[in-house]
Amino acid sequence: MKKYTVRMQAAGNRYSNVLSAFQHTTHAEGFQGLYHGVGPNVQRAMLLTATQLPSYDFFKQIILEKNLVQEGMICHFISAMFAGLMCATTTSPIDLVKV
């Protein structure tokens, strides 16, 4: 679905909805046209995961070592917020180039 929203952003009013973009792409480029953006999306997903998992673990460990909060919902929430910030920082340039 991401590819069609990017195409819809670039094309302006050419597509009326996602189904229209899907039909136009398969008619104009064939079924393989649906896979043009797979490579960059997979690379972005790999970078996101490679950033998210270690940063979450790192921030959670620091929070627990410094006794800022105890293990629980608040600790998980703070760790996830910092991990999300790290993910946004690393993937924003790729998202900008992709669109």
Task: Furnish the topology, listing elements before pairings.
Elements: H1 2-11, H2 18-29, H3 38-65, H4 73-98
Helix pairs in contact: 3-4
* Overall residue-averaged pLDDT value: 86
By oligomeric state, this entry counts as single chain
Structural shape: elongated
State Rg: 19 Å
List the helices and strands in order. HHHH
Helix content: over 70%
Number of strands: 0
Short description:
The protein is mainly α and 99 residues long.
Would you kindly provide a written description of the structure presented here, covering whatever features stand out?
By secondary structure, the protein is an all-alpha fold. The protein folds into two domains: 1-36, no CATH class; 39-99. Helix content is 77%, strand content 0%. It has four helices and no strands. Helix 3 (38-65) packs antiparallel against helix 4. The longest helix has 28 residues, at 38-65. The radius of gyration is 19 Å and the shape is elongated.
Characteristic terms for this protein:
99 residues; mainly alpha; 77% helix
